[in-house]
Structures are given as structure tokens and as C-alpha cells.
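User: Predict the complex with D-ribose.
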Amino acid sequence: MKITLGADHGAFHLREATLNYLKENGHEVIDHGTYSTDSVDYPDFVDLVCRDLREEKAELGILCCTTGLGMSIAANKQPGIRAALVHYNDEASLSRRHNNANVLCMGQLHTTAHEAGQLLDTFLSAPFEEGRHARRVAKFTAWENQNPTV
Ligand code: RB5
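Assistant: Here is the predicted structure with D-ribose placed in the model:
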């Protein structure tokens, strides 16, 4: 699968573990860094990863920061993005099966490299179940076409 990956300095080690895991498991990765622990701004990586998805350069995205919170909040402001901050395997599974999440967010603070491998395995293999879930996703996707009121 083609995956686009980005992280800030707060998830430098988690990004490395994620990148290695994806490559070892045969995935093709667009790696946007960050490539050191120097301080950077997480929205810049959100922008790169979400752009890849909209341009269909990748099928799914992975974003990592200290907590995963900033990445998920920012990514969900981008059109066409359904980002899920995930800590547990059942969340990884349900975020794909029910919410059709296209970005997995993880935080280095609470997710080990080993756990990340398990979350990735689940997220990348779980299919969207369509049916009633497609109806629900369509309801909030429609909001993207409305004019902002606040
Ligand atoms: C960076 O200090 C930290 O704020 C960032 O990694 C992330 O956790 C933001 O939500």
C-alpha cells in the first residue's frame, strides 16, 4: 500500500519506528520527516500528508506528534480528511471499519514502537464496512460544502 507519513520533533522516534515497520512490511512510504529533534510546527506536516491524500499519491496517511492531538485536530480541518487519534487496537480497527478514517494519528508519549506496529497492522488491513456507516460519513462530509457560520 502507498502510505504518506509525517511527524514533528515530538514523535521523532515514533516516526522512525513507523517508517521502518512500514518498509519492512512491504509498504511504499512517502516520508515527509521531520528528520531531527529540532523544533518544527506540526501543521506543516499535516499539510504535506493531507495534500498527498487529496492528490491520490497515497491511499492512507500517518501523522505522529507528542500526543497525536495536534496532528488529529489540524488534519480534521483539511478537506477530505478523516483523522483518528488511536491508542488501542479496537480503535484502530473501528476507525477504519466505521469511520473510514484515512489518517492514523499516534502520539509518542503513550505509544511504544511495538504498539505502533500493532496499530498500523490493524489500521492498514481493516476495511470500511460501507452500509449505514457510509450514510453517517456522508452526513458529516456534506458539512465541508457548507459556508462557515462561526
Ligand atoms: C510539540 O511540543 C507538541 O506540542 C506536539 O508534538 C504535539 O503533541 C501537539 O499536539
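The pocket of D-ribose is lined by residues 8, 10, 42, 65-67, 69-70 (CB under 6 Å).
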